[in-house]
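can u do me a favor
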């Protein structure tokens, strides 16, 4: 059974294991949304994620016999690193089943922390199936990434830290995958201060807990599709589903573009690198998915282990979602001076052209063409200003 005493015990055990990540105010988001926003930067943990809390506490509670058998876990990457680090520190063998889609950075980090890595085709749920098979075959001790009361208690220490540092918190916003993090945080907060609202956030492409709470029953999604691999879970846990129903006020979803814009905002304005799963809480507040006006809001940035190979694509999507970049297509008569005229208008409005593509269309007049221009811009209002200026000069935007 999960109790507040267990969470306090976890805080005692983890005192010299994890970093106490202090809240950071995010004034830009607060100004946009009419509230005070604070970030709980768990991306700054040693393993780059909150997961080390739950895994380290769980391993501390194992019997000597369980430790002797070695431990096995399944993960999208962050729980893997937490288990590997905690097990290695105690001299315990660890085997981690990771989905083949896990970022290379997470796979290599797991190996560096001393674990034996087993890559499994598919997503997290496929890695889970393989981990259970190996547990039964080789008698390993299984460390569940979210549906375990000791793991949940470890994650719940974040709730204690938030209330200790900001006792007058009004709202806490938490990323949700399988539900272990929000279960622990919500249980701690609702037990100690029931007036605080706790909201969960999932990616639109992996809404397992969102669907479960809405329908009243947990069901397996046929597939998940999101670059937020840390919360790409097809089915919530049995225990976490019950905790969410009881202690979480609402679960919302955010799009891939919204997550990308949140990552960009954190890099630019807070100098923090968040992975997709870690940034969904910020995305939910930034894009008005949660009523926050006039409140003190804590967004839990759960992890920062983003795959650098996709970071440039994420930033590009974030720029477009935030009005910082755009592409326009202009239908022209192919004659000298057209490009110069278009460039002059954009420059006079303060836009910066970064790409130009000129092409003839099959359905056009023989002397017709399309001009596709990529620009760096300041905002959506700036984009509107440029479009209006082009139209006023007689150019046809497609």
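np, heres the sequence
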């Amino acid at each position: 059974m999960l109790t507040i005493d267990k969470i306090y015990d976890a805080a005692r055990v983890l005192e010299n294991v994890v970093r106490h990540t202090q809240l950071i105010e995010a004034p830009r988001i607060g100004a946009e949304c009419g509230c005070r926003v604070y970030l709980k930067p768990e991306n700054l943990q040693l393993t780059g994620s909150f997961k080390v809390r739950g895994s380290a506490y769980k391993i501390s509670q194992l019997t000597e016999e369980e430790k002797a058998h070695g431990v096995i876990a399944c993960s999208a990457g962050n729980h893997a690193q937490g288990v590997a680090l905690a097990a290695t520190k105690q001299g315990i063998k660890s085997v981690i089943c990771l989905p083949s889609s896990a970022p290379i950075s997470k796979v290599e980090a797991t190996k560096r922390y001393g674990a034996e890595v087993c890559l499994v085709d598919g997503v997290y749920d496929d890695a889970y199936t393989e981990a259970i098979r190996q547990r039964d075959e080789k008698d390993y001790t299984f460390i569940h990434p979210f549906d375990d009361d000791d793991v949940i208690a470890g994650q719940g220490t974040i709730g204690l830290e938030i209330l200790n540092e900001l006792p007058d918190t009004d709202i806490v916003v938490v990323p949700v995958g399988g539900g272990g993090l929000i279960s622990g945080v919500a249980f701690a907060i609702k037990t100690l201060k029931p007036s605080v609202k706790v909201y969960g956030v999932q990616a639109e492409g992996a809404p397992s807990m969102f669907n479960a709470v809405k329908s009243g029953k947990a069901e397996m999604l046929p597939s998940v599709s999101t670059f937020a691999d840390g919360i790409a879970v097809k089915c919530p846990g049995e225990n976490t589903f019950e905790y969410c129903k009881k202690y979480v006020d609402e679960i919302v979803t955010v799009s891939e573009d919204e997550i990308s814009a949140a990552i960009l905002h954190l890099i630019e304005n807070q100098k923090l690198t968040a992975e997709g799963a870690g940034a969904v809480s910020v995305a939910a507040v930034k894009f008005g998915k949660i009523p926050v006006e006039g409140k003190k809001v804590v967004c839990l940035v759960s992890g920062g282990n983003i795959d650098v190979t996709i970071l440039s694509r994420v930033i590009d999507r974030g720029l477009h979602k935030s009005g910082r970049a755009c592409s326009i297509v202009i239908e022209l008569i192919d004659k000298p001076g057209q490009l110069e005229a278009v460039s002059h208008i954009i420059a006079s409005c303060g836009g910066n052209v970064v790409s130009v593509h000129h092409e003839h269309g099959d359905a056009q007049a023989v002397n017709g063409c399309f001009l596709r221009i990529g620009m760096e811009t300041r905002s959506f209002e700036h984009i509107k200003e440029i479009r209006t200026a082009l139209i006023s000069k007689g150019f046809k935007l497609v």
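The chain has 16 helices and 14 strands. hope that helps!!
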